[in-house]
Each structure stands twice: as structure tokens, then as C-alpha cells.
Amino acid sequence: MKAKPNLSLRTSRPQSLGGAFGGLLKIFGVRASDADLAARWNEIIGADLARLAKLQGIRSVGAHSCAPSVAKRPIKRAQKCAPTKFNITLKAVQPAFAMELSYRTEEFRARINKYFGYDAVGKITVKK
Description:
Layout: H1 17-28, H2 34-39, H3 41-45, H4 47-50, E1 53-61, E2 85-92, H5 98-103, H6 105-116, E3 121-127
Parallel strand pairs: 2-3
Antiparallel strand pairs: 1-2
């Protein structure tokens, strides 16, 4: 006979919903959340750039353009939704790297957009 699993013991740390859904979305091939970007920052940017910059903040710029609201009329089926864009704030690991990061913002933008599969980055801000 199989032994019953002991469900009272925790086998891993608790996760946030964003982190859990980000993992599921990655399995199914959908990449659209800021939690996904934060959880996989080193993987998306690469080890060379991740050593210089830490992700300090992500702000979604507006909701999907087809999100229903009370004042607007219903959405037509043929209407396409514009994906959400992200404003990203980076913090240099050392203040001396801030200028280097400001020169490489287009490289950050290209890598993030490649990961998401669309033009996901609105603005990148570098802080010391």
C-alpha cells in the first residue's frame, strides 16, 4: 500500500499569485505580465546586464485599450486589443554604472520586447 502524503508539511515557500501564474503562463507560452518580467529578470536581460542593473519598478501604462468601461459602448468582436506597455525603472548596482545603463537602454528595450513578442516597453528610467 502507498503511504498517504503528509500534507501538513510545507515542501516549498509560498508564492505570490503573480509568480505562480507567471510560471503557468510560461508553460503555455503566454507572456504578458509585469510579474513575469520581475520573476525572470536575469533570464530575460542576461547575466552581463543583470550584474549592472537591478529592476527597481514596473508600472503598467494604461489598461488594455479594449477593457470595458461604464461610459463606453460595448466592444465589437472585430476590434483588436492593444497590449499593455510597461514603464521600467532600473537602479544601477553602483552609481558609476548609471551612465553606462543610460547608454544601453535600447539594448534593454530590445531584449524585453523580444521576450514578450511585442513592443512592451514604454519608457526606461535609470536611477543612481
